[in-house]
Amino acid sequence: MNPLKMQLDRLARISCYKKPDCHPHALQMDTNENMCLPRGFIARLAADAMKRVDFRQYPDGLMDELTRRLGKFVGISPEHVAVGSGSDQLLDLLLSIIHDRRSLIVTVRPTFSFFLDRCRLHGIKVKEVPLREDLSLDARGLLSEQKAGLCYICSPNNPTGNQFERETVLDIARRFKGLVLIDEAYVEFARYSLKRVPLRFPNVVVLGTMSKAFGLAGARVGYATASLRVARLLRDLAQCPYPVSSMSLALASCALQHTREARRTWNFVKAERERVSETMRRFPGVRVFPSDANFILFNTGGTAQKIYRSLLDRSVLVRRIGKAGGHEDCLRVTIGTRAMNDTFLRALFAAVNR
Q1: 39-257 has the same fold as 16-32+260-352
Q2: Which of 43, 179, 248, 297 suits 144 as a labelling partner, its CA being 20 to 30 A distant?
């Protein structure tokens, strides 16, 4: 058979990343965007960034500046930092360039669906180790895969929302023989970060993003902390010469000059997350799972589709997750402004009491 046709047939069978449902008139609480940072604040950052950008020039200097600022923000030398067009792009680079496709990848189930989609695209075999009933890591199961060349851990995990115990993740980093990729997209809303761990364990790469904590999802700026060798590979070899636009780089640098405002928002999200969770727990038939992210996973006793439709009828859009860690019919809601959260709570209360 024609090799090209065989490859195209294989790719055609792969399920691609499913974009969120589009309901323009509904309150968007399904994509984990940070709507708590005021739009006016982001607009002021953009205006400041615009003054620093000359679109006639390539963005070399802006890339270097952002790398330095990220190093200072994380508390690591900038030589250990690589910037990309969203952490998704850096994740994909690690799969396509650094990871040996002949070896197995091990991760948890459930986890970030985009990661699994990219593994399928690259033809990489994946072993998924289910989370325990309490959604904690099965470290023994992950470490038992001796043939695995890469271990992917999303923490806080999407879609479950919980951050895995620090010592458990560090034990995996210490004992795993291959590359350990830790995805910390939501870490600013959590209890701790491991972004400096590559200084201790050179087999570890930690991903971060400006999309969630800094409200820059549309700018597409992500970064990785890694050993000097891996960071250099990501910066100088694996990427195209200019992977991020001048405007996005300048905008991200401006955001890192206003971390005080961002931190206030992170604290607000944490407080609202607890308030919303506690209120939801009082609703009949609703089970709320612990979260360290800017979203909450919950289920309603097998009535997910009914609740989803009822919420949408009230112009509130949440994310359908399905099965998560042995728990059926789960939904996920993003923490938004207080007004957004109150609208969701009223809609959910009405939905479960129909």
Answers
A1: no
A2: 297
